[in-house]
Amino acid sequence: MTHNIYLYLAVMAGVTYAIRVLPLTLLRRQIRNRFLRSFLYYVPYITLAVMTFPAIMDATQSPAAGAAALLIGILAAWLGAGLFPVAVLCCATVFLLELFLIP
Amino acid sequence: MNTCNPFLSNKRMLADGMRDGIPIGLGYLAVAFSLGVAARKAGLTAFQGFLASLLNNASAGEYAGFTVIAADAGYLEMALMTLIANARYLLMSCALSQRFSPETPLRHRLFLGFDVTDELFGITIARPGPIQPWYTYGAILIAIPCWSCGTALGVTAGNVLPARAVSALSVALYGMFLAIIIPAARGSRVVAVFVLLSFSASFAAAKLPLISRLSQGTRTILLTVTLSALAAAFFPVSDTSGNGETPSDKKGGRP
Question: CB of B211 within 8 Å of any CB in chain A?
Fold first, then answer.
């Protein structure tokens, strides 16, 4: 470990605060640029999707259990389940499958 | 100055905010626990996890930061990664900025800017009239301790829990990510196509010879910027309200 964790945390906190407070303090009008607005609209979904797969298969002891959790999570969210039900279903899927996959 | 509720004192609004903050805080406690499991994997102590959550109040942003720490990548990458993962807060803050009364002192903008999360943004913007800072402060007073203590608990209990339980808990965060992207994908074919494209591109980037040698954080930044720019160029959002309210703002559970 060549980097300092507290310095990492300071960078994280500084950038996060800037993102939140700069629009609040500087912006008194709507963003009119259509490309910029659309870009900001898509970023959260695309970045979360990129971070979810294939990382979910590396998070579990068995990649197959992670993949199953992904499918169950997508299905549950598609059917309208909220944040907690989906999260709990994903956890339960991994726990139950790994009882068999990793004896 | 509160033009919509002139009879409510600041104290009363603080109490209202604390009441509405309780369900949010309970949700945060659970989510922060699984974030703590991720922090432990990245090598953080319980105190460092507590500090990260106290100062950031951002689940995806903190998770992204922990992957940078785990990879021992540079500080610039940390800054870029945090920027990308938290970009949606930029959008929410833009929306909030439109709702401040001109009489509200600058210090309230500075304080409120510390904790713009999906849920707090949601309840703040849902109140009619200009923003009432003391209402949101009430909710923040409940939410932040739950969020930061939950993370510390996750780091600590992650050391005690059996590997089987940690493995199961570690997917909770991805489950919550899915609960945000899938309803949006269901509502918009463009989002659905780009979610599938993101999955495929991310998978390919992790396997392909040259690009897989870049760190996970760098790959996430490159893919997010490229795909979002493509989506914005070919499928610009027609909604002119620009209030930044996305489907994820409707459901509770994570900052």
Answer: no
